[in-house]
Amino acid sequence: MPAVPTPPFAATGRAVLVIDDEVTLARNLCVYLDRLGYVAETAGSAEEGLARAVELRPDIVLLDHNLPGQSGLAVLPRLREQEPAARIVLMTGHGSLELAVQAMKAGAVDYLSKPLVLGELKLLLERLSSQQRLETAVGYYAQREAQSSGLDQLRGDSPPMRALRERIERLLASERQLGDAEAPAVLIQGETGTGKELVARALHYGGPRAAQPFVELNCGALPPQLVEAELFGHERGAFTDARERKAGLVETAEGGSLFLDEIGEADLSVQVKLLKLLEDRRFRRLGGLRDQSVNLRILSATHQPLDTMVQQQRFRADLYYRLRIVELAVPPLRERGDDILALAEHFIALHARRYRRPPPSLSPAAEAALRRHRWPGNVRELRNGMEQAVLLAGGTQLDVEALGFLGPTLVGPAEAPSPGSEAERPAVSGLLPPDADLNLERMERRHIETALARSGDNVTQAARLLGVSRDTLRYRLERLGRA
Ligand SMILES: Nc1ncnc2c1ncn2[C@@H]1O[C@H](COP(=O)(O)OP(=O)(O)OP(=O)(O)O)[C@@H](O)[C@H]1O
Q1: Mind telling me which InterPro entries this protein's record contains (predicted)?
Q2: Which of 87, 141, 185, 312 lies 20 to 30 A from 385 at CA?
């Protein structure tokens, strides 16, 4: 098999400070590092090294132990305190293993024995640089995630949305006062696409666990055995495909939050294990012999009435009460009044920016149509619909024709509906235009495509909108040649 070429390593100006009183060696090292693409400087003593570091801000420090005056090991803690981002490597005499162990204990990331082997040094610097780059990237993404997950992302000024935001703010304020670290479990209820995940993220990133992981699992997206394996991980050989030991999401979320979306879809066997996790903060990997303890906060969401499911014995009562220490209800979009138009404008501006075109305005007829629609797919449907409208818009104004995704009954001039009138209810076949195409297969295809478009191609959500199971939708998609 041909060897896979590894991309060339580029030091791209990483700064290395060499603290060594052997002037010739230090100078030669600098020339070598310079050739590899590093910016290298030398210092002949511990004090000079500390002073140099202030200006250079080194990414890596090669620190000799045998320095005049203060030894390398003695200056290490000061250097770490002054340059917390720098990786420090102690250079020791050959065979001083004990010294190397002490250096690592004092915070050095590695050690090199003198005389230096240049190939070894090169590999070590590459490894340290790659680690730093990875950490910077992870830090960047974590920060970006946090910035786009605050409470301010939950737009809307209607009374139900203001009430929801106030409830979340009160909860976050109480959590800040919490004596122990055990934040209460929160159950977020609401129809599909109302913003339950946004609420979960706002709770995590607005709370004391913000710097720790936010890990999510959609319990309806996988078969029960896989949900268990994803959540709790498995030992090698726990089942046929378990070739390696794998940590689960519960472990990954240590210190942070675990968001269980569509908790109503969790199988009864998963429910038992979740109960144990909530009650004892303990879990066991599949095929594992011992329990492990974990510190995490559980957030869950559902569009299903869990209380009814409890009565029907489809959901464990004990788990339900554990999950809903705090309950938050996210209102459907149709109950948010003027938020519909404000959100529509927000999404138009967002998609216009993405597609680099001026944002079109909404015509009065289009506004009326948006207000009248029932929004079964809620904010997600509005967001996807506005993307389609922006994409297909010809001029500077969006008229009702651009809102084809709302369905045939809403396209065309409409009278303002009186509350509870036919037009206010969802579109039914009796309202189709007289010349509408009634071919059943084509209607089914259109229906399925509309549901997939509204749900952003999410089969679980599309199936829910269509009122069929995921398997039924998959079967129909296959039959229509869309799988
Ligand atoms: N109040 C809001 N302001 C701005 N964007 C929103 C709001 N609510 C929802 N969204 C957007 O709508 C989309 C759907 O939201 P989200 O995934 O949070 O809904 P959900 O209730 O978790 O859906 P599901 O039930 O399907 O899991 C996302 O793109 C989200 O950013």
Answers
A1: AAA+_ATPase, AAA_lid_NorR, CheY-like_superfamily, Homeodomain-like_sf, HTH_Fis, P-loop_NTPase, Sig_transdc_resp-reg_receiver, Sigma_54_int
A2: 141
Q: What ipTM was estimated for this complex?
A: 0.98
Cβ burial 329-349 (10 Å sphere, 16+ → b, else e)? bbbbbbebbebbeebbebbbe
Contact call for residues 348 and 389 (beta carbons, < 8 A):
yes
Q: Rounded distance, CA 203 to CA 301, Å?
A: 13
Q: Answer whether residue 446 shows pLDDT above 70.
A: yes
- Cα(195) to centroid of ligand 1, in Å? 3
The residues spanned by each domain of the chain are 15-142, 149-173+182-330, 332-417, 438-483
Closest C-alpha residue for ligand 1 atom 8: 195
Cβ atoms < 10 Å from Cβ of 40: 24
Q: What percentage of the chain exceeds 90 in pLDDT?
A: 50
Q: Which residue has the higher pLDDT, 360 or 452?
A: 360
Ligand 1 proximity of 165 Cβ (cutoff 6 Å): no
Question: What is the structure's pLDDT at 44?
Answer: 93
190 CB within 6 A, ligand 1: yes
User: Which of 3.90.226.10, 2.160.10.10, 3.90.170.10, 3.40.50.300 is the CATH number of 149-173+182-330?
Assistant: 3.40.50.300
Which CATH code of 3.40.50.2300, 3.40.50.450, 3.40.50.2000, 3.40.50.11900 fits the domain covering 15-142?
3.40.50.2300
Q: Check whether the bond before 115 is cis (ω within 30° of 0).
A: yes
User: In whole numbers, what is the pLDDT of the chain averaged over residues?
Assistant: 85
Q: If DSSP codes are grouped into helix, strand and coil, which group holds residue 203? A: helix
d(CA 467, CA 476): 13
Q: Is 455 in the pocket of ligand 1 (CB under 6 A)?
A: no
- By most ligand atoms within 8 Å of CB, the mutation choice from 197, 204, 387 for ligand 1 is 197
Distance 153 CA to ligand 1 centre (A): 10
340 C-alpha to ligand 1 centroid (Å): 13
Residue type, 367: E
pLDDT, tens digit, 9 for 90 and up, residues 313-346: 999 999 999 999 999 999 999 999 999 999 999 9
Q: What is the DSSP letter of 417?
A: P
